[in-house]
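Entry — protein

Goal — fold tokens:
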Amino acid sequence: MKMLSTVSMAALLVATASPSRLFAQNAFAPPPPNTAACAPENGLKFVCGVRSAEDETLIPGTRWIIASGKLSGEGVKLVDTDAKTEQLFYTGAPAQMRPDKKLYPNCPAPLDPKSFVAHGLYLRAASTSGRYNLYVVSHGTLESIEVFGVDTRGPQPSLTWTGCVPMPEGDNKSNGVAAFSDGTIITTLEERPGTTIVQELNGEPVGDVLEWKPGMNSFHPIPGTQLAGDNGIEISPDESEFYVVAYGTRSIAVFSRKDPSKPLRSTVAPGFTPDNLRWSGERLLAAGPVYDDPACGGTPSQARANPSKGRCNRGYVVAQLDPKTMTWSIVAYAESASEIGAVSTGVIAGSTLWIGANFAEGLAYRPLPGAGR
């Protein structure tokens, strides 16, 4: 079988840095995509050029997706889901600069698009209708959370850079990001400095959730949120809770914002390793690679013990989580494909499922299983 439609849970289980930065005066175009390696496969089509889209977010009520690019210079892309086209969203042009030095006084300089490596994303509605704040995990010359304004009131969305919050000194590479309406930013560290991926896969609490509030000098760890690889992160609609992926244990933990000293509840994902979490309308979606894939040497821990296999593209799963009952329902899954590896995110736009991955030359899409039936 090459592609699988909506299935039951049982069927799935059986199947199973330097702070200095340069100001770019002109638009920057990253290297051209390898379109020869962006052909339709296994039921997936691609918007070529959206390379290594580790995360994505749909602008509510529009046809536009913002996707991150986990390669130098890829930055953030704007994807037209109707036309199936993409463009570089942040170019560093002077018109895109609107720094808020009062809110982000410790941001050293504007973001250089040439070295912009974008990881996790988060989009939050601003107080003005049609405007949003976009938060981006950046691994460029400065480890930081970059903040942009997005305006959707024109023919197509526009973007302005407003500032950044640098990560603490040391090897602190954040992964996911989310933000509350009061401006508080929370971000995840999958592995604290001095810890390893092996410890994470063994279930040791090597990760953190860090918090920054307006007026604070830097991010600070939130006690009680140390998990086996803090990864994707989301916030409940009423902002009373936040949800964190523990990558090493394939689980989602729910924390109270008021008292995050320990998880309120948790669940293990069925047959896959969730990476990012994303609200897609009223559906909380998690996406990630199949956990135990014989073609890739078994589980991630088993595969690491057999490095001769090299990088292996696992099958993927996109599933919906009910964060109150902690029950899962499968949205879609499929076996591996050569054109996409390390699937990390999924969102739904109309009757189409959009899938991002660490290793791909384009943003993937496919019909949503069961749509139109």
Observations:
- Residues 9-15 form the longest helix (7 residues).
